[in-house]
Structures are given as structure tokens and as C-alpha cells.
Amino acid sequence: MILLGVILLVIGVLVGVSLLTTIGGVLVLIGAILWILGATGRAVGGRKHYF
Questions:
Q1: How far is the C-alpha of 51 from the C-alpha of 49, rounded, in Å?
Q2: How far apart are CA 30 and CA 7, in angstroms?
Q3: Domain segments of the chain: what residues?
Q4: pTM of the entire predicted model
Q5: Whole-angstrom Cα distance, residue 17 to residue 2?
Q6: Per-residue pLDDT tens for 33-46?
Q7: Residue 49: strand, helix, or coil
Q8: What angle do the packed helices 18-39 and 2-15 form, to 10 degrees?
Q9: In Å, how far from its chain's centre is CA 6?
Q10: For the chain, how far is it from start to end, CA to CA, in angstroms?
């Protein structure tokens, strides 16, 4: 999710499409939050790991 967000963020900045930049930023943020919660061993949504 983080990788997809970074790709969309870069494409959005290079092309100048603000919608792609916004979606990419949101995906990076959500992916980072899930990664941090998963790394601490806390189950999120009933799962310990998100792949």
C-alpha cells in the first residue's frame, strides 16, 4: 500500500494531477499507520499482519 501510494504521489506531481497526488498521500499515510500498528504486534481488524 505504501509503494502504490508513493508511485501515485510521484506520478501526480510529475503530471500535475492533484487527485493522484491526494490519493497517493492518503495511501502512504494509511499504509504507514497499518505498518506501525502491525510492527508493534497490535492486531488491527482482527489480523496481526497485513501483506
A1: 6
A2: 15
A3: 2-11+19-38
A4: 0.75
A5: 19
A6: 888 887 877 676 66
A7: coil
A8: 160
A9: 8
A10: 9
What value does the CA radius of gyration of the chain take, rounded to a whole number of Å? 13
AA identity, residue 29 = L
Q: Which three cell numbers stand for residue 45?
A: 481488524
Measured torsion, CA atoms of residues 48, 44, 2, 24, in degrees rounded to the nearest 10 = 160
Task: State which amino acid sits at residue 26.
Answer: V
Q: 2-50 pLDDT, tens per residue?
A: 899 999 999 999 998 889 999 999 999 999 988 888 787 767 666 666 5
Transcribe 1-48 into DSSP letters: -HHHHHHHHHHHHHHT-HHHHHHHHHHHHHHHHHHHHHHTT--BTTBS
Question: In the prediction, which pLDDT does 24 show?
Answer: 92
